[in-house]
Structure formats: structure tokens, C-alpha cells
Here is the input.
Amino acid sequence: MKTFHINLKGTPKRSVIVCRKNVLTKQLKDDLPWLKAGGAMIFTDSNVFSLYQRKIKVLDLPVFVMPAGEEYKTEQTLFALLQAMAEAGLRRSSALIALGGGVVGDIGGLAASLFMRGISCIQVPTTLLAQVDSSVGGKTAIDFCGVKNLIGAFHQPMYVYADPDFFRTLPPREIRCGLGEIVKHAALNGALFEKLLANRGRLFDLGFLSELVPENIAIKAEIVRKDPNETGLRRCLNLGHTTGHAIELTKGDLSHGECVLLGLLYENRIARKYLATDEAYLDALESLIRTVLVCDVTFDAEEAARLALHDKKNMAKDTVSLAVPTRKGEFAFLDLNFSDYVHALKEIGKAL
Ligand code: NAD
Ligand code: GLY
Here is the structure.
């Protein structure tokens, strides 16, 4: 078992992250005695519910189940959940337990931030992506008006319970998606980068991935601690994401993690074009990305660039703001005007 405490700079808030097996048992309630007083509700999706319903029922709490999938990360699901929370009689002292991947975690976190102006949220992430990234750090959101994560709030989870046993039921594609965010962390952290390169043959090994979870949480937690509300440093966690989110909206058949990998591939090459970089390092990073990525790497550059212009991370009108890798463990922020960005995407697409 490994536990992390994130004491958030400039606020009295903190988040506790526990990595341990066998989370979905009665012990969860015993660990959190205040749940008994305030009451709690479980929010999950249809896939996780059908796989884990026996264990969920042991907790003896009201459950709200959303249909699985990014296409349901909508205001309809959010308001249906808020209604279920009201009907279950949750109070200010209650907690919402978000049991699932990043979609459940993002909607659950947002509902917890809104209900009665904010109740506690406990994240129980069940995908690799959610354990290494989305359950940590308090970003919550729904997609809105065709833009990823347009409506959201920062609402730090009171607890995160990361249990590697959940990986046993994950399809290989979901492991690949989680590796997308792990490779992103490796682009920010030289030690993790070396470890992934040295263990290329074990990237899909569940034992190795369980080892990587606390390491990735520690990398993210340190960045979130310093900049919980993304006023500066935390923007580095968006590496690969500006282009990745635009591709996600352009190519509906790809998942978030796959698009992050594609975004990393393109932004790696954009960095070489515009900045002084370590070419040998970026070659090695590209080959690591390609070890994990198996999808078609081309997309409609014009459409993706137009969508990237709506990204909430952009610093100015008609500008696309990127966080890009430059050297081992180093990154830079780069603002490109629209025409340079479209041109770069087209040129890279042709060369890949
Ligand atoms: P997801 O939540 O859609 O889960 C992927 C699939 O795996 C779903 O079909 C789900 O039902 C299924 N699943 C979940 N747990 C399972 C298990 N243990 N066994 C079998 N199947 C299981 O997607 P995701 O990849 O976990 O998360 C992607 C989402 O996270 C995106 O919406 C993205 O925007 C968001 N995200 C948020 C942050 C953040 O900081 N808040 C960071 C990264 C990504
Ligand atoms: N996934 C980006 C962040 O948490 O800031």
C-alpha cells in the first residue's frame, strides 16, 4: 500500500491518494466512518456496473449508472446524476463515490462540486488512464457545444483509491489509452522516460503497470500541489492535449488516450520545427510513442486546427497554445498563429 497527501499550495485543502488492492469491499466504508453519518452514493457506468455489481452491492449504497462512453459526457448525464443525488437525500456532509474511468470521474467530480455548492468526492478509478491521471488533481468537466471539457470546475477529491486489480478486466485498447498519459508523464520526467525505454517489452504487463501507477501519481501530484488551479506550471500536463483534443473531436472513433498519443507525436515534431531541441531525445520519445500507438496517424488537419482554436487553454485569439517536449525532462510553452499551426499539421501529416 502507498499513500500520497497533496497539500495544495495557497489553500487549506488536501487530497489523499491511496494505492492498494481490494478496495471494493466493506472495508471502504470502515475506512471512511463519516460516510455512515453523511451518507454516500455510488456513480458508475454500465460496463463497470455489469463487471463489478456483486462487489458494488456489498457496499449497500444507492447507485446511479450512466451509459458507458465519452458521448455521454454531457449535461443530460450530469443533470440526471444531480437529480438522483437529490432523490437519494444526499446532504452537504455526504459524499459521491465516482467508480469508473475518466468519464465517470470527470462527471462525478463536477456533480459533487455543484450539489449543494460542493460535497465531498471520492474517486475510485477503474481504468489505467484514470488511475495515473484523471482521478488525481481535481479537474472535472463535461463536453459542451462540441468542445471537450468546456464546462467544468476544479474540485479536489477528498480521497482517491487506486486499485490495480481493476486492470484485470480492462481490454488491451484501454491499457494503450492509459499508456498515452504515462508516456506524457515520461516526457516531463527523465527517470520515468528511461524506465519506459528500458522496459519497452513490458509495457502491457499488468504487474509492471501496477508498479507504474504510484510513480505516475507522484509526478502528477507534485505538479498539482504547486499549481492546483493551472495558473502556470500545471499547463505542462496538457502536453499532447491541444492537438489531441482536436483530433478526438475530428476522428470520433479514437479514444482520449489514443488521441493524446497522436497529439504527442505531432507536437514532438512541431517542437523540432520551432524550438531548439535535443533531436536524439525527441527521436527516442517518438519511437516510444510509436511502440504504443497502433492507429492511423493521419486526420483532417484543417478541421482539427479549427477545433484547436476553441481550446480553452489558448492564450490569445487566433492562437493555438501548446506545451511541447524539448529535451529529456524538459518542456516549453509555444504559441502558434492559426496559419502556422495548420501548415505544421499538414506538413507533419504528409511526412509521417
Ligand atoms: P472511460 O471512462 O470512457 O473508460 C474507458 C472504457 O473502459 C469505458 O467503456 C468503461 O466503461 C470501461 N471500463 C472502465 N473501467 C473498466 C474496467 N476495470 N474493466 C473493463 N472496462 C472498464 O475513459 P478513460 O480512458 O478512463 O478516460 C477518458 C476520459 O478522461 C476523457 O473524457 C478525458 O477527457 C478524461 N480525462 C480527464 C483528466 C482530468 O484531469 N480530469 C485527465 C485525462 C483524461
Ligand atoms: N490532465 C491534465 C491535468 O490534470 O492538468
